[in-house]
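Hi L.,

As promised, DNA-binding transcriptional regulator, LysR family:
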Amino acid sequence: MRYTLKQLAVFDAIASRGSVSLAAEQLSLTQSATSMSLSQLEKMLGKPLFERVGKRMVLTHWGQWLRPKAKGLLGQAEQIQLGFSGQHLVSGNISVGASQTSAHHLVPDLISKTDKDFPEVRIQLEVENTEHVIEGVLDHRYQLGIIEGRCDDSRLLQQTWCNDQLAVVAGPHHPYARLKSVSLGQLEQAEWVLREQGAGTRAIFDAAIHGHIDNLNVRHEYEQISILKTLVQQGPYLSCLPVLDVERAIERDELVALKVPELNMTRRLSFIWRRESADNPVRNCLLTEGKRLERVRALQ
């Protein structure tokens, strides 16, 4: 085999951007040089790596097989270069997709701790719901994901970061706010505002009430937790939200956590990454820092 790292970098850039011209711009190459590198790689391997779908370049079956292996080789080459250039051994960029709760309450501490211990690491963060984070890791948009709840996709590895609880909340003036406990029948009679389908919080809540409540009256579904909290605080609605997101509002008596004995909604926040991806020192660094932060948090 005589393929070069440049050819693999061109292949990976086209896969990421879906376009030869955008890949050329990313790599600071001419479009003709980028096309030539791809053609040479495909000729050498004897297989087409892309097919055109409209204006986009989409990976073929062979391209999908090659991509994680190419990314692994490129990552190792970067570590070799950084090591010989006298930089920290754990250096480089990592793309992370995180669900809302983890991004707002846990990831800032993770970034701060990493900045302190590994100053050459740069974390590129995007916030999406759990379903989209999983899709992003599978599509190679993220090298590491942080999700709520379980992920059963056999293509991914999952490591628990910490546990969290969900709470059914009402506004202080809601009739249920004065009750010592609330039954499932009363929940079924209420109006609800909830996270959208695909959110980890929504999936756990739906699983918890499955078989107990047949027709839930969901008035609104929104992605933004701040909107849901305000609607519950000011209106006649109930919601189910992570304790991490509502504990301060509960302490300030802006929201009331309802006691629902029949519901147990413990969940876990986890790191996920592709099973077939190569060993990544930067990813391993974040996993280790996450464990350290959780040990400190558990002692508080």
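The first helix runs from residue 5 to 17.

Thanks again for sending the construct details.

K.
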